[in-house]
Amino acid sequence: MDSNSLISVIIPVYNVKPYLAEALDSVLEQTYRNLEIIVVENGSDDGSEKMCDDYGNRDPRVKVIHLSSRGLSRARNTGLDAVTGEAVAFLDSDDAYYPEYISEMVQAMVRTNADIVICKSRTYHTDGKMLVSTQKHEPLYLKPGVYTREEALNALLLDGEIRHGVWNKLYKRELWETVRFPEGRVYEDVATTYRILDKCNSVCHLDLALYKYRRRNGSITFSSSWQYYEDLLEAHAGIEAYILSNVPELFSESRLIKWRRSYISVLISFYVKWSRKKGKTDKARCEKIRRNIIETGKKYGVKGIGFRTRTAYYMLRFCPWLFHVVYPLYRAVVSVKKRIMKKQAGKKIPE
What we know:
Elements: E1 7-13, H1 17-28, E2 35-42, H2 48-58, E3 62-67, H3 72-82, E4 87-90, E5 96-97, H4 101-112, E6 116-125, E7 145-148, H5 149-157, E8 169-172, H6 193-197, E9 202-215, H7 226-245, H8 253-275, H9 280-300, H10 307-318, H11 320-348
């Protein structure tokens, strides 16, 4: 790996025509030029498929693969099967890179000889073009520097300092030789990233916001079907099995308990989403999630988790009707505080 190595960028595409040009242009306009851009078009019917071919005809670095079936995991796996570069990056087709994304990531990988380089991102709440973000960058959880495999796994699985998403990372290609995304499931990043970190020797974290992340209502991340709930349970079961098999090599028993307790907050977030649905089946599923929350708390305890999560847990366990009274009031207060903070930030940060 050197400062001019071929870098492969994998971009899965499915019905994202309003955002696709911005994503593809952000890769073509990288200051780093030695790129292999693998666009995996996954059965689109909104014109995205033609746009992919247009870009493939425009620039020889763009290789377009058309698939007849849908699925993010299959698209990414197809891209991984096709890469020839020495390092691999991913881009979600409704997001974008800053112009120096690849250059800065490659320089860091060469400088530190890390197997993975992670950057920060800026979040854009928009269904239009990502022109301006009032957010300077995502909060700094993990300090900049180089981390060992053990430190990186703890930061991912127990501390929440590394995101599971694959999109803000550059990987040496050999890490993916025996790892693929689980097909037919969502939360595929949660089920995959820890397996990749387990194969690396070191990870470099940059305090640079190089990735533009778009938060929109129609994206997979913010959908809430029952499959998402079941897939998340399965992904977390895989993580727990991995942690259990590596205690005390990588994780302490106390940190395992802490991880189990933090899982309660994840379940509560699903309960909140499902409680907004009105159907009879939805109510039954909502109750199933509540029972799961209660049993998880009984099994692992709630001592040591945050005050708000602990309070929500006890309300759901002993007095669920009170939760449905208090939670909307709490969200209203939080919303007002956010608007005030955003207004104040807008005065300080020129657009």
